[in-house]
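Field reference: sequence -> structure
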Amino acid sequence: MITLILLLIQLFWLIAGFRWLEEYSEVYLAVMVSVSAALLIYIINKDEMPEFKLAWVIPICATPVFGALLYLFIVGDWTNLGMKKRLNKRRKETEEFLHTDERTRKRMEISSTHMANLSRYVEAEGGFPSYGGASVTYFPTGEEKFADLLKELKDAKEFIFLEYFIVERGRMWNCVLEILKEKVKEGVEVRFMYDGMCSLLLLPYSYPKQLEACGIKTKMFSPIIPLLSTAQNNRDHRKILVIDGKTAYTGGVNMADEYINEVVRFGHWKDAAIKVEGDAVKSFTLMFLQMWNISEAAEGDYSKYIRKSEKKAVRSSGFIIPYGDGPATPENVAETIYMDVVNQATNYVHIMTPYFIVDNAMLDVLQYAARRGVDVKLIVPHIPDKKAVFAISRTYYPDLLGAGVKVYEYEPGFIHAKVFVSDDEKAVVGTVNLDYRSLYHHFECGVYLYRNEAVADVEADFAKTLKSCIEINMAYYKKIPVLLRLTGRVLRLFGPLM
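Structure field:
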């Protein structure tokens, strides 16, 4: 509460100061109007989405001084330059470990030229290779992931890495924490990193020290401090858990009880997760270490955590690409992968997402897919966790329905799964939402599956979830109160900034 109050006080004095300058300093106002005009010309000619341009043109025109300075402050992102530079340095340190082996490359080229080209793109722009013969297990609920996770944690022998966006004390985290403490006593190295947003409402600011006292190496990513700074805009939204370099988990499930329906906040919580075993775990191991070492002075020792997996008698067909994305990467790899799935679809594309605030490019590919006869189905929540975001999401319904996209709301509660599945051939499971914050501002991760048996499990989960959904039509949309629809339309202007 103190942090929030101090941030609001700073924001108030900034706005008041700008207003005072506008009123009492004609020279200053003239300079800022000139700067605003120059910024408008720059923004209009910038190679950027129209939505981002519009979201800045409006405040700059409405309040030239405040709007211009806000743009320079946020888009300049001066306070984040050091962090991005350090992360790119860590990515270069791990390059030698992250290459698609030649045998896998040749198999992909024989299997699908497009898959081989996508693999080259993700490796070149995102820094992560492709793997053949990886074992994948899909979990259609947080409860199933949690049960499996506890068994795997108990078998850990060498190291455990955890990286989560939300951690809240309760049954889920307490069970995991007890195992981690026991593993530390057995000599297992445990590292735990969580996003600093947790310090606002969920965990005490001193929580890392409490865990360090138990032998668990702990870090907060970008701790929230009472200082206006763009460094606090980019959050670590990933959910990664790596065990001994042989097993890795990701997906939508955080370390809090609502994710396993131990507590009810927004009706039934529908989530999804995925477990990867085999050589592909190496990408998640290094993904974690890259982020961990951002705040380290010395170069990281990566080779000691790379494991050659033991071959298991488990499902291991097709190819997978574990990948990470974030504001330090010039290419929007996560969005490109989603769009590629839609563009390449011939029969169907089925999507589950908690939020739907997309740019025109994503909206266009979904509409075009439906118009060319692809069965495009989208499941979103019926009970939202963020009402403003939900209001914006619903503004897309007429556009989607008009193009033939079938939209559904999950009637029992809240959808938190981030899933794409298409043509019984490919699927994506990870942490990436269909909103600007996930696609452009947060650090995210996911797994792209191609002709892996787990794709069938993802589609089966979608079909089962669909049975609990309300199909949306224009009659349903028109019953939404006019004020809510209007609010969504207004807020949609600022969607890229939310």
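Note: Residues 233 and 264 are 29 Å apart (CA to CA).
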